[in-house]
Each structure stands twice: as C-alpha cells, then as structure tokens.
Amino acid sequence: MSNLEQTAATVEFDRLKYAEGLSSPAQRPDFRLGKRSLQLISWLAPVALVAVWEILAQAGWLSPQVLPAPSKVARTAIKLATTGSLLNDLGVSLLRAAAGFAIGASIGFALGTFVGFSRIAEAAIDRSVQMIRAIPFLALLPLVIVWLGVGEAEKIFLVALGVTFPIYINTILGIRQVDPKLVELGRIQGLNALQLIRRVVLPGALPSILTGVRYALATAWLALVVAETIGAQSGIGFLAMDAREFLRTDVIVLTIVIYALIGIAADAIARWLERRLLAWHPNYGGTR
User: Fold this and answer.
1) Which of 60, 198, 218, 278 is the one with CA 20 to 30 A from 67?
2) CA angle, residues 217, 223, 227, in degrees to nearest 5
3) What φ, ψ does residue 278 adopt, rounded to 5°?
4) Number of domains comprising the chain
5) Per the confidence metrics, is the pTM higher than 0.85?
6) What is the predicted pLDDT for the residue at 283?
7) Is 54 contained in some domain?
8) What pLDDT is recorded for position 32?
C-alpha cells in the first residue's frame, strides 16, 4: 500500500471513529446542557413570539379584526370551554382523527410490509399507490362526498387516506435499509423466516416506521381540516368555518392555536414511542 493510500485509510478510520463517538448521546457536544435546559431553549422562541404579538396588539399596531391579541384569544377559549362547545368540538375532532389514523396506519403498515418484502408485490401495488398519493385532498373531496356523503365516514376516510402514505413509504424504506449482514447473521443463528422478520427486520426498520408515524400524525390533522370545512356540524374545523361567517377572528385564531397545540402533543407522543421502542438504539434511547 502506498503512502497516499495509507493516509487516506487513516483519515477514513479517524472519521468513522469520530462519527461513532458522536453517535453516543453522552459524547455529543450539546448533551452537556442537560435535557431540561434543551427543553427550555426549545420553548424560548414560541414564548417570545407570543409576547411580541401581545405587545403589538396592545399598542394598537395590530387590528383586532386582523389579528387579535393572545389575551383576547385566551378569554375566548375560556368562554367557549365554559359553555362546553369548545370541548365538544375538540372531542369530536380527536375521535375522527384517532379513527382515521388507526385505519390508515394499519393499511399503510400492511401494504408497506408486503411491498418491502416482495418485489412482485411492489410491481403489482406500488405504482397505483404512488398515483393515488399524488392526488391532492381537495381534488378527491367531491368524489368522496358523492361516495360517502358529508357524514362521519367521509371525514374518517380522508384522514385514513392521508395517514396511509407516510407510513407505507417509510415502512418500505425501513425494511429495504436493514443491514443484509444482520439478516445473514440471523440465518446463521438458525432463525426461521417468521423469527427473522420479527426479531431482525422489523426492529431494524422501526426507526423509519416511527418517522412515518410522525409525518402521518401531522397529515391526519391536515386531512381533517379539509374534511371538516364541508358539511360538518361539529369539530374544530366546523368551529372555524362558523366563526368565519360571523367575522370572529378571535375564534379562528383560537382554532389555529388548538391545531398547533394538538400537533405538539402528537409529536410528543411519537417521541415517547421512539424512546420506549428504540431504547436499544444509540441515536434514540434516552436522548429526548
């Protein structure tokens, strides 16, 4: 081996060792700040934004009809919660999102697993799925209304449809990215096909699948917003559309804030699942 080749090999070895060291949570430079400090930093920007928003509104630089003050939105939330209408609409939307997510996630995971393990299934299914995925929700909405009407089935169907694709794609990606050496090691250890899938392939694909879950949670609410803007008699989307008719900007902003808070909560649930299910993984376990 020439001197140049030796130098290149040494540099590559050092780079891999450095990357391996940073993959350990305890050796990351920002880990020394502590979990609570990092969480505090993550909330500084939203709190500062709300504070500036309140100051500008109180100073009269923001019209109440354009963007009411956060304090006004908070009072509106308390008033609607006291009457019970806000909690009722929130509960209805959560049930729709949960039902649609359960159906869509099950279908997406099943199809993704099937396609991930079979090239024949990929040839038979994947192109059709990708074509449907490319169709916007608003383009499908008239046809879905003709099929299912404007009841609960239409809303749950749209949520399930939106959830299916992120989980489908990330399930396939996770299965295809499992290290072949691990699969071969499982075969050497005498694992049969079912044990190999359960103990090697699916755990290896889990980080990608959970990433799909995080995307799907966001997509679920996007689909629900679209679904609840037409023909709904309850739900957060209905609350926003009803407020629009009466120019209640404070209620409209409140619904936007609710969607944002639900998104934060859904992402927190996904992170919790990552911590629990990927505790064995050096890049996930105990880092968040």
Assistant:
1) 218
2) 140
3) -115, 35
4) 1
5) no
6) 67
7) no
8) 56
The answer to whether 161 and 194 are in contact (CB under 8 A) is no
What are the C-alpha distances in Å from 8 to residues 2, 13, 21, 104, 279?
Answer: 10, 9, 20, 49, 35
Residue 25 lies in a domain: no
pLDDT means per 10 residues in the chain (288 residues)?
40 43 48 68 85 89 86 92 89 93 95 92 92 86 86 91 94 89 82 81 88 91 84 84 86 91 87 82 58
Which value, in Å, is the radius of gyration of the alpha carbons in the chain? 24
* CA distance linking residue 83 with residue 251, whole number of Å: 14
DSSP category for residue 136: -
The residue segments making up the domain with residue 243 are 74-277
Taken in order 102, 106, 109, 115, the sign of the CA dihedral is: negative
Task: Give a yes or no: residue 18 inside a domain.
Answer: no
Residue 235 within any structural domain of the chain? yes
Q: In whole angstroms, give the CA distance from residue 213 to residue 215.
A: 5
Q: How far, in Å, are 49, 56, 71, 248, 253 from residue 68 at the CA level? A: 14, 10, 8, 10, 8
**Residue 184 has which token pair?**
């071969």
Take residue 202 and report the two structure tokens written for it.
Answer: 């699916």
Q: Is the dihedral of CA 225, 227, 228, 230 positive or negative?
A: positive
